[in-house]
């Protein structure tokens, strides 16, 4: 239950984190403040902060010098800033100007992992697999596919290593080709992320500019868990060229 809320008449929010993955800092305006379950929150017009969702962790961010945690406010749909553990929020009013910034290094890692996940999905689909789950957290990143009937390669260790080699080859080729990564909105409002002509999927995450920005993309041997193919992976963002 929302105990209190104050908002501007327009209360429109721009998802700046989707417009530019690499935007580190922005001066913006407070459009809403409120309290939920005893916790204060603030929403700004140019939202720099990606909230946790879609398998991607939340950004680490700050309003002025106060560290915050972004979350999706279910009643309004806004992404709002709440206090980090052990911290507080700056005292802000609707209409006040404020500086927002993110931990860009963490953002780049999250973007690399999320983009690499799309790439792993794309190469898995070339094997006739259908994705049924994904997570893009550091140290936990994986794509899960429904295991098809009749693929004998998945039934023994040598076969799984053979399949993994095929996936690694497809991933490496796409990165070497430096395929562009782009996003567009469909008429129904869904945001589609594309890896050139290789793959497209609805997604509200942050992504690198092109696959050549991915570095240290590693795929351990695939595993079979409860009838699912689990493809774990790790990746980082290439240092600026």
TrEMBL record:
InterPro entries linked: Alanyl-tRNA_Editing_Enzymes, Thr/Ala-tRNA-synth_IIc_edit, Transl_B-barrel_sf
Annotated coiled-coil segments of the chain: none
Domain of life: Bacteria
Keywords linked to the UniProt accession: Hydrolase, Metal-binding, Zinc
Gene Ontology terms for molecular function: hydrolase activity
SUPFAM superfamilies: ThrRS/AlaRS common domain, Translation proteins
PANTHER family reported in the protein's UniProt record: ALANYL-TRNA EDITING PROTEIN (PTHR43462), ALANYL-TRNA EDITING PROTEIN AARSD1 (PTHR43462:SF1)
Record protein name field: Metal-dependent hydrolase
